[in-house]
Amino acid sequence: MSFSHRRDIDGLRAIAVLPVVFGHAGIAGFSGGFIGVDVFFVISGYLITAIILTNLDERSFSLSDFYLRRIRRLLPALFVVLAATVCLGWVLMPPGDFEALGRSSLSVLSLWANVWLWQNTGDYFGAAAEITPLLHTWSLAVEEQFYLVFPACLIALSRLSVAWRFRVVTCVTTMAAALSIFVTFEHPMASFYLMPTRAWEFGAGALIAAVPNYCPTRRWAAPVVSSGLVMIAFAVLTYNSSLPTPGINAVLPVLGAMRVIVKSGVQAFFMQRLDLGLMA
Question: Of the residues 101, 102, 152, 214, which has the maximum number of CB atoms within 10 A of its CB?
Answer without folding.
Answer: 101
